[in-house]
Amino acid sequence: MIGTLYEIVGGEAFFVALVERFYVHVAEDPVLRPLYPADLEPGKAHLSGFLAQYWGGPPNYSMVRGHPRLRMRHAPFIIGQAERDAWVTHMRTAVDSSEAAPVVKSELMAYFKNTATFLINRQ
Questions:
Q1: Residue 108 CA from chain centroid, whole number
Q2: Mean pLDDT computed over every residue of the chain
Q3: Which of 29, 49, 57, 76 could, after both became Cys, cross-link 6 (CB 3.0–4.6 A)?
Q4: What does the pLDDT average to over 90-118?
Q5: DSSP string, 47-87
């Protein structure tokens, strides 16, 4: 790939749309929904901003929220294998329904699977 993944997918709009598709499933998931606050909008903004920055976009997320500190931010939530698997399943659905090239989808999913596994904090 030439350029950042952020540039390849067309910028921030890709990540906003990806997160919107993902949250449609989170909102209905009996395993994940209890982990989220009543208002899902702030979480959507945080996730899309983080992903845009992570994949090469402007550092807007860090300017507003500071260092991502993923493990620390997720520590208060019980994340076991079931939660990880549900999260990955919904993110895979969101990624698969995007217009991204197969190589981009593969790179995104490798990151999401590894990161979701890293955030498991309960057996």
A1: 9
A2: 96
A3: 57
A4: 98
A5: HHHHHHHHTT--THHHHHH-S--HHHHHTTS---HHHHHHH
* Number of neighbouring beta carbons within 10 Å of residue 100: 19
Reduce the DSSP state of residue 21 to 3 states and report it.
Answer: helix
- Tokens describing residue 32: 């994940």
pTM of the entire predicted model: 0.94
- The predicted model gives 15-23 an average pLDDT of 98
Are the C-beta atoms of 57 and 12 separated by less than 8 Å?
yes
Token pair for residue 77?
């939530």
Q: Candidates 1.10.490.10, 1.10.10.10, 3.20.20.140, 1.20.1260.10; correct CATH number of 5-118?
A: 1.10.490.10
CA angle 36, 40, 43 (to 5 degrees): 80
14 in Cβ contact with 7 (< 8 Å): no
**Please, which pLDDT band fits residue 1 given cuts at 50, 70 and 90?**
low
Residue keyed to tokens 């860090």:
62
